[in-house]
């Protein structure tokens, strides 16, 4: 029997397990295949792919896009405030059993869960209230990510609506994640070879879409490869109508295992409309729609790192105008874009220095206890 927490961020849903629970598991009696470190080790706990697929199954298991294994880590010093902050490691497993290196929405969800737990401790709650900001560091296989939220001193269990926070351009969000810089250098995305054109990929010569229907091939003539701690391939389309012409499953599943991406790739199709206003906020007013095929999980309702990759690709190619360079790097100097996905809207901020911040809704859906099937039930018939 395994306790778990089910969480969601814009419909991108996760099952969260504690590594300490897995470490105490009796492998023979439960059917889980676990290789776990001790509490003094890295906090990693490896699950057998069959077990992961069973838990992620939406009919016979709990059901989720990805399964997360988290573990408390030593306190770190916050790079901005210099104060000690909690840290938690997060392993990410796709619903097909493969391991992922990063996930923006999972990071937001785990950060919120850890923050909520912190507030249950009276002494820590007082410290957070005095600071006015709560910070948690989430450690993934590819990046260490600073996550934060501002707190209402009168109701410490809730966040302040963003519109009441001075100089905060995000709206109606809970947790902010500093996603770092997007990568365009081919070895860091990574690609299997240098395509000699930066990160711009030709659909036929680079991606092998020569056999795609002509109407689809013309829409996907050029893709942009972006690294956000995990590899992304972004196709920028001129209209929502053209976005809706794309068969996300057919194209996404074909490209997910393309040889150009040694780790596989998340495939995103995005349409960026004209500005709805003029002036300094014109770029942020543009309607941005996106659909995602995630490697190892299939088509999902949202993807945080993909939302960041869309903005990075659009600015890289000049579809969106990057913010002017300034000496400071804070919320007041960010361009903030709303990326609408089937499950909801995510906000992506990008500073003049190129650092990306992700924000959006996240919540606990329910908690429960999972009873894994017996070993015989997990074994496919001969």
From TrEMBL:
It catalyses: (2S,6S)-2,6-diaminopimelate = meso-2,6-diaminopimelate. One of its GO terms (molecular function) is diaminopimelate epimerase activity. Keywords: Amino-acid biosynthesis, Isomerase, Lysine biosynthesis. Its EC number is 5.1.1.7. Pathway: Amino-acid biosynthesis; L-lysine biosynthesis via DAP pathway; DL-2,6-diaminopimelate from LL-2,6-diaminopimelate: step 1/1. GO terms for biological process: lysine biosynthetic process via diaminopimelate. PROSITE patterns: DAP_EPIMERASE (PS01326). GO terms for cellular component: cytosol. It is an enzyme of class 5 (isomerase). NCBIfam families: DapF. PANTHER family: DIAMINOPIMELATE EPIMERASE (PTHR31689:SF0), DIAMINOPIMELATE EPIMERASE, CHLOROPLASTIC (PTHR31689). Belongs to the diaminopimelate epimerase family. This is diaminopimelate epimerase. It comes from Capsaspora owczarzaki (strain ATCC 30864).
């Amino acid at each position: 029997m395994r306790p778990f927490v089910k969480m969601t961020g814009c419909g991108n849903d996760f099952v969260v397990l504690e590594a300490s629970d897995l470490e105490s598991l009796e492998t023979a009696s439960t059917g889980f295949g676990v290789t776990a470190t001790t509490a003094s080790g890295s906090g990693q706990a490896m699950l057998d792919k069959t077990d992961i697929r069973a838990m992620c199954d939406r009919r016979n298991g709990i059901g989720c896009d990805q399964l997360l294994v988290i573990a408390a880590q030593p306190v770190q010093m916050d790079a901005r405030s210099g104060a000690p902050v909690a840290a938690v490691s997060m392993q990410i497993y796709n619903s097909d059993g493969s391991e992922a290196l990063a996930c923006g929405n999972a990071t937001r969800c785990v950060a919120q869960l850890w923050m909520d737990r912190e507030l249950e401790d009276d002494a820590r709650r007082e410290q957070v209230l005095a600071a006015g900001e709560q910070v948690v560091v989430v450690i993934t296989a590819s990046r260490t990510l600073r996550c934060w939220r501002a707190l209402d001193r009168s109701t410490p269990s809730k966040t302040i609506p963003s519109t009441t926070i001075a100089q905060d351009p995000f709206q109606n969000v809970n947790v902010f994640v500093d996603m770092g810089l997007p990568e365009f250098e081919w070895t860091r995305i990574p690609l299997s070879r240098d395509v000699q054109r930066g990160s711009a990929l030709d659909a036929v010569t680079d991606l092998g879409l020569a056999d795609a229907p002509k109407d689809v091939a013309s829409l996907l003539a050029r893709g942009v490869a972006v690294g956000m701690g995990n590899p992304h391939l972004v196709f920028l389309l001129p209209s929502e109508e053209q976005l809706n012409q794309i068969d996300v499953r057919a194209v996404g599943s074909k490209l997910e295992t393309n040889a150009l991406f040694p780790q596989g790739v998340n495939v995103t199709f995005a349409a960026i409309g004209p500005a709805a206003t003029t002036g300094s906020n014109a770029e942020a007013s543009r309607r941005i729609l996106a659909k995602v095929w995630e490697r190892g999980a299939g088509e999902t309702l949202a993807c945080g790192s993909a939302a960041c990759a869309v903005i990075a690709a659009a600015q890289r190619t000049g579809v969106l105008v990057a913010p002017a360079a300034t000496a400071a790097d804070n919320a007041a100097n960010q361009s903030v874009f709303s990326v609408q996905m089937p499950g909801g809207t995510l906000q992506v901020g990008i500073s003049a220095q190129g650092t990306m911040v992700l924000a959006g809704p996240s919540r606990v859906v329910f908690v429960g206890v999972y009873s894994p099937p017996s070993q015989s039930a997990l074994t496919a018939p001969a």
